[in-house]
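Two records follow; treat each independently.
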Amino acid sequence: MSKPVFLIDSLSAGYRDNTVLDSIHLTLSESEFVSIIGPNGAGKSTLLKVISRAIAPSSGTVIFNDKNISNYSKRELASKMSVVVPIPGDIPDFSVKMFLSFGRFPFKRLFTPDNTEESIIKDISELCAIDRLLARSIKELSAGEFQLVKIARALIQNKDLILLDEPVSNLDYKHVTQVMDILLEFNRTGSTIIAAFHDVNIAAEYSSRIIALKKGSIYFDGTPNDVISEDKLSGLYDSKFLCRNNPVTGRPVVYPVSITNYKLQCTM
């Protein structure tokens, strides 16, 4: 049985007087690819913020690798997990190589050269197929290219545990596949991936486990084949869905159904 990475008990969290997560109990284990889905405002991003210690819970505990997450220093925590989130505001005009080097900050020591930085950046940039971009400014990159660069920076920092908030939103199909295939490949070699998605099909195709949140509580939790169904999704999103299987991979595929067209069809 895989070792637990996170033990989450009676977790509640939110912002000021607004409770977003309400008494969450979860165990997240090594080498899982966990997708968190649910409607807007369900608490997906908030859960990631709490377990990465970006915000503190209002009640309950988060045990990370057998230790309360509040007892880690920021540098120690950064050496044990990577976090990929949208970057707000204007980004300084860094080169891609410089941006990637920031992934090494938890391991750098004053007056001590980082003799491994060059080789790590080279290896990861080649794996992520961004080595041709190293001299470019990050301001010159497309959204898809920049997302690949952010994934590479996270892998340079830590490959054991990666938390991601909407890693493929607003990307074209090519870059969606590139990003997700990289994450899947690292998961297959032992990395623990925990990611929030709006797209149920991406979650179903790539993850080993799907956790659905609704109104701050866990609505369902299980493997894609066990939990992706028309009834469960209709209840989660208060919409109508059609579920089938991908003829190539056998994974569930979800089709949202227009309520208007559905009613028209039923009256014909």
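The next record belongs to a different protein.
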Amino acid sequence: MDKQLEKLIQDQIKNEWYSAYLYTSMAAWCESENLEGFAHWMYKQAEEETEHGKKMFEFLIDRGVKIVLQAIPQPPSDFPSPQAIFEQSLEHEKKVTALIYGIADQADKVNDHPTKVFIQWFITEQVEEEKNASQILDLLRKIPANSAAIFQLDHRLMKRE
């Protein structure tokens, strides 16, 4: 495997697991604010991100690459509001999308067919990730501060499977 492509995927394993760490931190903040539905949604998101990292990990193993795990930075732990959490979440997902595109571009550049096929799933997944965060953020922007509607949304988010 091309060394630059290998490095990008190894970096992305760290980035996916950082994402899980970030969403877990957001869930913890939601728990502290008694927003159990928001916390539930974030815990589910963290589980997905962990799985994404594992998929990349296993892909590299299958390709005969030695995995070198990297340090995961500490995520923020304090957030001003649920809206701020989803603003940060959407921004974060956009950064992840750009990183995934970088892997796809490098796979194209070096004509690595297995990686081109593999990374397509992540490209499609990022469309969903950005859409989900964007839709919730849009709803939060429509809810006035201190409105009871936040609790209705909290209840709705508890239903995420």
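Discussion point: The helical segments are 3-32, 36-62, 82-109, 113-142, 149-157. How would you locate this feature using only the token line?
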